[in-house]
Structure formats: structure tokens, C-alpha cells
Design a protein that fits this description.
Helix content is about 70%, strand content about 0%. It is mainly α. α3 (about 40-50) packs antiparallel against α4 (about 55-70). The chain is elongated. About 15% of the residues are buried.
């Protein structure tokens, strides 16, 4: 189970790293990415729940990323 959690966490990390943020952030982009840093358990729970009911985890990544962004607002 722990290995699967780590795999899901890695998927969230990779997705967020590739996520294009709005250009209007300008020099604030590094600060915004830093703010997204520690908030990972909720998106992992989203992915794990979807996985448990048979959804494709890759299809759930945008929603899981949105959960992280909402936590920062």
C-alpha cells in the first residue's frame, strides 16, 4: 500500500511541475509553486479513491491538482 501511495504522490508532483501557470504571475511564479509544495495528501487521496473505484488515475490528475490549488487560496 505504501508503494502505491508513493506512486500516486509522484504522479501529483510530476503533474504540478508541468502545470503551466498564468503568465500574469510574472516573478511571483516561484513563490506560487513553493506555496503548492506541502499540500499533497488531499490530491493523493483523490487519486487513491478514484483508483479504488476503477477510474484511470491519469484522468483524475487535473482535479487532484485543482484540490492543491484551492488549498492555497
Amino acid at each position: 500500500m505504501q508503494q502505491r501511495v508513493e506512486q500516486l504522490r509522484a504522479l501529483v508532483e510530476a503533474y504540478l511541475a508541468e502545470l503551466a501557470l498564468t503568465p500574469e504571475l510574472g516573478t511571483l511564479e516561484p513563490a506560487v509553486r513553493h506555496a503548492l509544495g506541502g499540500k499533497r495528501i488531499r490530491p493523493v487521496l483523490c487519486l487513491a479513491t478514484g483508483d479504488a473505484i476503477g477510474a484511470r488515475v491519469e484522468d483524475l490528475l487535473p482535479g487532484a491538482a485543482y484540490v492543491v490549488i484551492l488549498q492555497c487560496l
